[in-house]
Structures are given as C-alpha cells and as structure tokens.
Specification:
Blueprint lengths: L1 H13 L4 E3 L1 H11 L1 H16 L10 E18 L13 E23 L3 H67 L5 H36 L6 E3 L11 H11 L1 H22 L4 E15 L6 E14 L7 H67 L5 H35 L7
Parallel strand pairs: 1-4
Antiparallel strand pairs: 2-3, 3-5, 5-6
C-alpha cells in the first residue's frame, strides 16, 4: 500500500497548479507556438519573393555602366616613308612614360515588346503559385488543429478512464474492508477475503497504469501546444452538431476544401505552362536604346583628346527556326503534365468526397449509438447500485458484486471513448468541408 500512497502524492503534486484548458485555448497555444507553421509560412514567403512581376519578364531592363582606363607606356614609333610632316620632322618618334586615358559611361534600356505573351502567362502562373502557397498554409494549419484536437480528446478520454478506475479502486477498498471485518467475525471464509484482496490489487494496478497513460497524454499535448512543463484541467463538455446535412457539406467541400483548391490551382498553373511553352514558337521583338559618352586622351596618338557622345536605338526581331526539337518536346511535356494535373484533380475530388461521406455516416451512426450506450450505461449503473445494496445485505456473493462493477466500468469506458471519437469525427467533417478554422 505504501507505493500507492506515494503515487497519490505524486498525482496531487501533478494536479496542484493545473490550468483550465479549453479546446479553443489549446488550439490558440498550438498555432502560436508551432515550429511547423512558422516554417511553412517562411517557405511561402520565399515563393512569393521569387514570383514577382520582374521575374515574369514584363518589365524593361535598365543598366548603367562606367569605366576608367589609364596607362603609362614607353613607345617607339617609326613612320612610313610616304608620310611626310616636313624636313624638320623625324621619321621616328620616341615616347617615354607616355600617358593614355579612356573614360567611358553609358546608360542602356532594353525591353521585350513581344514574345508570344509568355510574360503575361508567366505572371498569371506566379499569381496562382502565390495563392497555392497561401492555401498550403491553411492546409497545414488545419492539420495542426486536427492533431491538437485528437490529442486533446485522447487526454480527456484517458482522464475519464483514470477516474473510472480510481472509483473502482475505492469501491474495491471498501469491499475489502467489509470482507476483512466479516472474516474477523467469522461470517465469511478466508477464501472470500483473499478474493477481495485480489480484486483490490487488480483495481490498484489498473488505476496506476491509467494514471501513467494520463501523464503521458498530458505531456504529449503540452509538447504539441508548446507548453511541455504544464498540466491541464480539461473541459468535460460534449456538444454535438445535430444539424449537419450531407448535401450542404458536399457543396462546401467542393468550394472550400484546401486540398481541392490547391489541386484546381495546380491544374490552372499547368494550363499557363502549356501557354508559355506554346509561346516559344512565336517570334520575339526587342527594343533597345542607349546613351554613351567616351573621352579618350593619348600622348602617342595623332589625336591628343577625343570626346564622343550619342544615342543608339533599334529594334531586334528574332524568329525561332530550329532548336533540336527542344521547343516541341517542351510543348509535348506541358500537354502531358496538364493531363496528369487533371487526373490528380479528379482523384483528389473523389478521395475527399469519399472521406467526407465516410466521416458523415460514421458521425451520424455514432450519435445514434451514443444514445443507446447512454441508456445502457444508466441501466447498468442502476443494476450495480442494486447489487451493492444486496451485497451489503449479504444476499449476493462478492463475485456477483464484482462482475456487476466490472460491467459498469467497461460500459463507462466504452461510452466515454465513443464520446471522444465522435467529437473528433465531427471536426474531421469540418476540416473536409473547409469549415474547421471557422469553428
């Protein structure tokens, strides 16, 4: 018994400063502290930084360049005989440490006027990819919320199981004390006393094991919501939505489900990629213009200094003729990819629809079963109370009383487990129909 009292003391410390944690608060903690969500948001930010109007090729390119070159050379120049600059001019020139300088600067603009509308299609593709990134964030948040919900109700169920076994232990302890008193008076045999002790030890083991599982579930929930060192007092209320309509849910699923939306956007992106591939067969027209300035000085040139500046403008037309069939292969691959995206979209729609139907029918069936299980539990509870009175009066044996108590424990555990399963099923329906974050 000493180990049991130590366990009770530990559990008292475990529950001393518990926080009352509603499901809504647990979800809030989880989303605020989730490393996975933070990573997904950063990934989406990178995608958006890469997908901008400049990367689509619809903006002009403007460049400025400037340079300075200087040199000091020793030069020997021999002039040809047909060059005559007068009798007093030598036919050779020696230049020592002759300096030359070249200063240049320019500003240029280039702009693709036409490329088969590839830039417009690329920009459309980027916008859809940015939307996919946002939708993926919503999808990941929904998965995170579902994980929190499942862990929350797992802990709640284990807490109810612990309470059931704890109550059973108290009943067995009371029954053992009664058997011990009766045995001392000679009213029951030693065998009956030993049976009561065995039952007491069995209930003790069940209670201790359920407490360990409760502690484990509490730590898992704390880790999931970012509060690993805390303990919680959970909300024991189960309110079910009795007004779910399958036709309405199916319509909401097709328009709101994040997986379907991403599949539709990916299909639309594949359409844009096909258009981009097709535009590569079109000629491209580029406009270019630049202004340049040059200043050249030389001590060995016939011209000591020359300054030039001017504007250049023109149009360049490029017509694709042959590129080893790469453009055609890319176009064919884009067509194949579009077909694959269409198959993927239809598959996802069918899969999500099937999952919703299964979740809905399981949910409605569970609601019906809960009503029957609750009625059955109330009947078993009444029977157990009657058996307790009969046992106290000595009209039934310890074994009969024990069997009624085990039946009651199992009925309570099954009913509470079904409560948690049904509530999780309800939230799965909300996730499939795109309503989870609004609940």
């Amino acid at each position: 018994m000493r180990h049991f009292f130590i366990l009770i003391i530990l559990f008292a410390n475990f529950t001393f400063s518990q926080e009352f944690l509603t499901l809504e608060k647990a979800i809030e903690y989880g989303l605020n502290n989730s490393h996975n969500i933070a990573i997904i948001k950063n990934d989406a930010e990178i995608i958006k930084n890469m997908n901008h109007i400049g990367a689509a090729g619809v903006l002009p390119n403007i460049t400025i360049s400037s340079g300075y070159n200087g040199a000091i050379n020793n030069s020997e120049l021999d002039l040809n005989s047909f060059l005559s600059f007068g009798d007093d001019m030598d036919s050779s020139i020696d230049a020592t440490k002759a300096k030359s300088v070249n200063i240049s600067s320019s500003i240029g603009l280039s702009y693709r006027l036409f490329n088969g509308f590839s830039g417009i299609y690329t920009l459309s593709k980027f916008r859809k990819q940015n939307t996919i990134a946002d939708e993926n964030i919503r999808y990941q948040i929904e998965l995170e919320i579902l994980d929190i919900i499942k862990q929350y109700y797992d802990m709640l169920n284990r807490e109810l199981v612990y309470n059931t076994f704890k109550e059973s232990y108290q009943i067995s302890l009371e029954r053992y004390n009664q058997a011990l008193e009766r045995h001392s008076l000679g009213a029951i045999s030693k065998i009956n006393l030993l049976n009561a002790e065995v039952n007491l030890n069995q209930d003790k083991v069940q209670m201790e094991e359920s407490l360990i599982k409760l502690k484990e579930s509490t730590l898992n929930l704390g880790l999931l919501i970012g509060l690993p060192e805390s303990s919680f007092d959970l909300q024991h209320e189960f309110n079910f939505n009795q007004n779910l309509n399958i036709e309405t849910l199916l319509k909401q699923t097709l328009t709101n489900n994040s997986s379907i939306i991403m599949a539709e956007l990916n299909y639309s992106v594949a359409k844009d990629e096909l258009k981009i591939s097709k535009s590569n067969f079109s000629p491209s027209i580029d406009l270019f213009s630049s202004y340049s300035y040059n200043n050249r000085k030389s001590e060995t040139s016939f011209i000591s200094e020359q300054k030039d500046n001017g504007v250049i403008a023109g149009i360049n037309v490029e017509i694709p003729i042959f590129s080893s069939n790469m453009r055609r292969k890319n176009f064919q691959n884009a067509q194949i990819n579009l077909k694959s995206r269409n198959h993927s979209l239809e598959h996802i729609k069918e899969t999500i629809k099937t999952a919703l139907l299964n979740a809905y029918y399981n949910y409605t069936e569970n609601l019906n079963n809960l009503a029957l299980m609750k009625s059955n539990l109330e009947t078993i509870e009444k029977t157990a109370n009657i058996n307790k009175e009969l046992y106290d009066l000595g009209q039934i044996s310890n074994l009969e009383y024990r069997e009624s108590q085990i039946l009651l424990d199992q009925a309570e555990i099954n009913y509470n487990s079904k409560l948690s399963q049904t509530k999780i099923q309800e939230y799965i329906i909300y996730q499939l129909s795109g309503q989870l974050q609004s609940k």
